[in-house]
Amino acid sequence: MERSTLKRTSSFPDPEPAKALRSTLILRPKFGSPLLMLITEEDGCRIYNPEDGMVYETKSDFSGYRFLGSSGKWFLVVDSQLKLYIVDVFSEERIDLPPLESLKGSLYKIERVGENKVRNILYSDLSPGDPHTAEDLRGRLWVGDNKEDYVVVWHFEMNDFLGFCKKGDDHYREILTRTGVRRELRGVKDMVLKGYSLYVLAIRDFIRHLDLSGHGEDGIKDVSENHKLPMWMPSLSRDEQLRVNIDKISSSSESIAVTRSGQVLVVCSYELGNSEVHRMFHVYKRDPKDLDPKTYLTQLLEVHSLGDEALFLDLGTTVPADHTRGIEPNSIYFTRGDRIRHRNPSRPDICVFNLTTKTIKHSHNLNVKDARWFLPS
Fold first, then answer.
1. Strand pairing of 150-156 and 161-166?
2. Who contacts 167 (Cβ-Cβ below 8 Å, separation ≥6)?
3. Theoretical Cys-Cys bridge with 280: which of 30, 59, 65, 270, CB 3.0 to 4.6 Å?
């Protein structure tokens, strides 16, 4: 069991008394129990433990960091000067990552513009892209057991490349998302990093699967399945369509997740209404017959049950349900649906959706800028 050094500050959800109240109580989360990282404008971040309903301080001061992704107790963060780190939220341990300007590839390079901006430059004509700040950066992280390896993937929204590195690298390598990529696999709508496997939901709704475990010059192997047509989602039910007509969709998102068995799921989330958040979820998978060369219908199949698993959309993975750890079966743990692309307006909506009962439990009255579910290990 992880012995953390997080001090309790207040009960949930009212964070205001936390500024005055201090306690020596230490958070000792159960291995794999879900916790919430709460990010506020004023106070950096705190951790909420659903098991005891308390909010805890972190030992290190993470104010000024943006949280891009997590793996176990480790978070990928970026500071205002666009420096990337991997941090342990239960201690003061930090892993410094290569500077963004270390990117090596065939088409792009990164140059710094002042202290808190960078821009990408196309080698062929030396035309610079628009300057980027830390707010524009997106990322995913995977850390192996005992830190024996890690993989970091990042990109700037609307750019045509990703950067990635593994433990021991002193630079990032370039993953092109348009040039030299099959038409149906171009672009990035969402991505999931599971070990050395990077799954990318392309703009045309195909899944690109890259193996990053290689040791060659670029370390990348495309192992994508060769689907002929994109993934068409079934229409909403009549009752849902009536509900949409009344409440209106204020934002929607498409995300992908990978089950423990390696199956890729597409998760659609719809936010309804403006004054109070109402949300619908649909989970889909490909029909195995899509690989048949005679098949021309590629409508996705809806997944009505995750079995004895729960889906953590912030992580893009499913995990075994476990009531002793507070993980509800056949449920989706959600905070927001635009981690990789901020095309639609979105607000944090911390909730757990049960696929069996179609009911949703919200954590209301949270005055936070952002939040993320994570599973300490």
1. antiparallel
2. 147, 148, 149, 150
3. 270
- Residue 8: per-residue pLDDT: 53
How far apart are alpha carbons 76 and 292 in whole angstroms? 40
24-74: pLDDT as tens digits: 345 666 778 999 999 886 667 888 888 888 888 887 888 889 999 999 999
Contact 218, 212 (CB under 8 A): no
DSSP state of 347: -
CA angle at 250 for the pair 244 and 256, rounded to the nearest 5° = 90
The amino acid at residue 170 is: D
Identify whether the C-beta of residue 90 lies closer than 8 Å to the C-beta of residue 59: yes
Helix residue ranges per DSSP H, the chain: 238-247
The one-letter amino acid code at 203 reads I
Confidence of residue 107 (pLDDT cuts 50, 70, 90): very high
Contact 175, 166 (CB under 8 A): no
Which residues neighbour 229 within 8 Å (Cβ) at sequence distance 6 or greater?
A: 290, 296, 298
Q: Which of 188, 189, 166, 190 is nearest to 177 (CA)?
A: 188
What are 46's two structure tokens? 């705190």
Q: Indicate the DSSP class of residue 239.
A: H
Ramachandran angles phi, psi of 255, nearest 5°: -125, 165
Query: Could you count the other beta carbons within 10 Å of the beta carbon of residue 232?
Result: 12
Residue partners of 193: CB distance under 8 A and separation at least 6: 69, 140, 141, 142, 151, 153, 199, 316
Nearest-angstrom CA–CA distance, 317 and 194:
8
pLDDT per residue over 280-313, tens digit each? 899 999 877 766 656 666 678 899 999 999 999 9
How far, in Å, are 4, 42, 44, 83, 242 from residue 59 at the CA level? 9, 17, 12, 21, 49
Residues 6+ apart with CB under 8 A from 14: 365
Question: Is the four-CA dihedral 208, 212, 217, 221 of positive or negative sign?
Answer: negative
Question: Which residue has tokens 């949280």?
Answer: 67
Half-sphere exposure at residue 111, Cβ-oriented, CA atoms within 13 angstroms: 9
- Please choose, from the candidates 189, 337, 340, the residue with its C-alpha nearest in 3D space to the C-alpha of residue 270: 337
**Cα 250 to Cα 345: distance, rounded to the nearest angstrom:** 8
